[in-house]
Amino acid sequence: MTQDLFDDQLDPVLLPLGPGAVVLRRFATADESALLDAVRQVIEQAPLRHMVTPGGFRMSVAMTNCGDLGWVSDPTGYRYDPTDPQSGKAWPRMPDVFARLATEAASHAGFEGFVPDACLVNRYEPGARLSLHQDRNERDYGQPIVSVSIGIPAVFLFGGAARSHKSQRVPLEHGDVVVWGGPARLHYHGVLPLKEAEHPLTGACRFNLTFRCAG
Ligand code: SIN
Ligand code: FE2
Description:
Layout: H1 3-8, E1 13-18, E2 21-25, H2 32-45, E3 62-67, E4 70-74, E5 77-81, H3 96-108, E6 118-124, E7 130-133, E8 145-151, E9 154-158, E10 168-172, E11 177-180, E12 189-191, E13 206-212
Antiparallel strand pairs: 1-2, 2-11, 3-6, 4-5, 6-13, 7-12, 8-11, 8-13, 9-10, 9-12
The structure holds succinic acid (SIN) and fe (ii) ion.
The site of fe (ii) ion (FE2) has 3 residues, from loops.
């Protein structure tokens, strides 16, 4: 097979990061227009905002949520909240295209029956970053995390069970989906500062959708 055929193939390429963690390269590309339409609808109902960490820092990533529960940070701590504190209303319902993609990606990664109740929508502009952290505000660590990249590239840091473990640098592109669960569920992860770039569908930004079973 020539390299061209590899580049054009529609089947996702499964890249293991370690036990319980994989990148499904380009898994979301086929749904890109529907996903972006849905992102825009969510943002219209629950605008992106820069949350403040419990330590008092304004996050460089702009965030919003959809689904039954939304991840919220403020000076009192991190939590999942059924209402958007900015509007006092419920978060927008999770678009069907989001839920379907998350369930399919989890299943490809070996986690059957994943039905997320929370989707964090992150927007990274060049320079935005997410420091190394664990996702540990969810009730059931038996369920994986599914993370979808849309737009300009980023370098994902995937570490181990302790903050001190060395992280892998995983380049993520438009359409890539990372799934981690089982023995990797509480692994540290983060995103390096984004470089300047343009994507035909998003301009100079990256959206990341993080799906979780939170409640
Ligand atoms: C996250 O850890 O919540 C987001 C990761 C990413 O943007 O790829
Ligand atoms: Fe995370």
